[in-house]
Amino acid sequence: MGNTFGHIFRLTTFGESHGPAIGGIIDGCPAGMTVDYELLEGDVARRRPGQSGLTTTRKEDDKVELLSGIFEGRTTGAPIAFMVRNINVRSGDYENLRELFRPSHADYTYTVKYGLRDHRGGGRASARETLARVVAGAFAKMALREQGIGIEAFTTRIGTVGIASGIAFESDKAAENPLHCPDSKAAAAMAEALTKAKADGDSLGAWVHCIVKGVPAGWGEPHFDKLQAMLASAMLSIPACKGFEYGSGFDISLPGSLANDAFYAENGRIRTRSNHSGGIQGGISNGEDICFNIAFKPIASISRPQETIGLDGRPASLIIKGRHDPCVLPRALPVVEAMAAIVLMDAGLMAKAIHL
Fold this sequence. Notes:
Layout: E1 4-5, E2 10-15, E3 21-27, H1 37-47, E4 64-66, E5 70-71, E6 74-75, E7 80-85, H2 107-114, H3 130-145, E8 150-158, E9 161-162, H4 171-174, H5 184-199, E10 206-213, H6 227-236, E11 241-246, H7 256-259, E12 263-266, E13 269-272, E14 280-281, E15 284-285, E16 290-296, E17 306-309, E18 315-318, H8 333-353
Antiparallel strand pairs: 1-2, 2-3, 3-7, 4-7, 5-6, 8-9, 8-10, 10-16, 11-16, 12-13, 14-15, 17-18
Helix pairs in contact: 1-3, 3-8, 6-8
């Protein structure tokens, strides 16, 4: 239950952080698509641990083994099964957690729900599961790219440091720093804050802005499968994600006379003069850029002493060992893009299904 996402383009994931492998099955991927291995490997590398001093020191090759659904470099239309073996586990680091609940983790809730839990690195609740999402998202990106659709996520805030007002979201500018932040000055301050948090055994929260370009008007279903609802579901399923907003979101300061998106025609295409709607109206894409923000909480695994309780309900002191990131960024950026790609691929296929 709860391990499958999507309607037509569907992903089922499996595996635990310290088990033999993480993997998944993609169903509904169109046949005949040429597999872009460079795109796949590139997105997996962006999520890979140990890529800089700002992330965990855990090292994983993250080599994707494609087991089915591909023949001579093209998708066959059959389910695409894949797995990535876990090769750098140190389960002994978590032995002291066998009888303790970590604060703000899923330890307690998993125990209540299932009656037992895998205490090694969080087991199924570990963010390592997002690796399977990135693989599936890469295949969705390949298909969307053929339709002229691009997705890019940017770091906009870490802790108390945010980008300056009016900064343009330029890919080349963001690529100049490991946080993929479009504001170079803010990126330097963010890196400094992360370095300090890591040294202090602490962690920081973060904001991400994602832009989707090229989505045609008409994608998204009325009411319960509105495009923004599908995106919200996808983003809030990412570990540590605490908030989602699209368009103007929680900024309700403007009156309707200024916040409404006025229509106009340009070269035979209907456009809007502003994008307070975030590219979605009535739950359906309107042809403008789809823009949304998501917020991530500070990672709960910190090395500072904390108070908790054990399985017996008695108070206990806890120090979490192991190798952990001081922030979900930058490694969460390809996860955000992947989940957006899966949603949009699914929405595009559903849009095609309503016309003969």
